[in-house]
Amino acid sequence: MLVISVGDTHFPWIYWRTIDRICERIESTRNVKNVHIIQMGDLYDQYSYSKFPRTHDLYTPKEEVLRGRKLAERMWDMFKKANPRAKCWQLMGNHDVRPYKRILERLPEVETFMDFKSHWSFDKVETILDVSEDLILGGVVYTHGWTKLGNHVAFTGKNTVCGHLHRGGVVTVRHGKKTLWEANAGFCANPHSVPLSYGPLNRYSKTTQGWLEVSEGWPTFRGCLNP
What is d(CA 93, CA 164) in angstroms, rounded to the nearest whole number? Predict the structure, then answer.
């Protein structure tokens, strides 16, 4: 089994050179059996729905949603064309649920009528719509994540791949009598775009372009040149 994990894309603020590199790698796996491709969540940025103070309104909420969806469809079409036999998965991240949270904060009574499924549904891609639900393949947990690298293992008790942090890498952690690993899938968005450089933490932290592979039960981060 080969699992290719694609980190946070934050559409529409994507960095296409990284996606092109991932496509080249996926295409090289056409003769590999049992290939899985996972987008690790934060597919969309949902900048228009964020709560932090900002001075830039780059799109209307509708424009951002429609443009993000169009570009996300393009990415998945590229991946499926690169290896039509690969099994594709879409996870949800904290940015993805921003609109859902904003609506419930203002008008919780409409929850019964809300349906976000179509925005995260793609042809021949299996989507896990609950941001708290993990995917397990070959005994490895795949989750968007919520904390720093190395902390998820203590929670899952299994080898774990996460997104969220924007910095690819692998660490090993002692868990009881076992040594487990945790890996981050890196970043595929443009860190210099306004929505992704809105504060000192994002501006000066070192995001890592690339993707993560798990083969034979061991992770490898494949880095690319940062923009």
Answer: 8
Lookup: tokens for 190 = 């443009």
Q: Please tell me the distance from the alpha carbon of residue 6 to that of residue 210, in angstroms, as a whole number.
A: 8
Element (H, E) at 203: helix 200-204
For residue 8, give every residue at least 6 positions away whose Cβ sits within 8 Å of its Cβ, in sequence order, or none. Answer: 40, 41, 42, 93, 95, 163, 164, 166, 185, 187, 188, 189
99 neighbors 116 (Cβ within 8 angstroms): yes
CA distance 171 to 155: 15
In the chain, the percentage of residues whose pLDDT exceeds 70 is 94
> Do 107 and 50 meet the contact criterion of CB atoms below 8 Å apart?
no
> d(Cα 74, Cα 9) in Å, to the nearest integer?
12
Between strands 125-127 and 87-90, the pairing is parallel
What's the pLDDT at 200?
54
| Tens digits of residue pLDDT in 56-66 | 667 888 999 99
What CA–CA distances, in Å, run from 172 to 36, 151, 205, 212, 221? 23, 11, 22, 15, 14
Domains of the chain: 2-223 (3.60.21)
Q: Do residues 91 and 38 touch, judged by C-beta distance below 8 A?
A: yes
DSSP one-letter string for 73-131: HHHHHHHHHH-TTSEEEE---TTTTHHHHHHHHH-GGGGGG---HHHH-BTTEEE---T
Lowest average pLDDT, out of 48-52, 113-117, 136-140, 188-192, goes to: 113-117
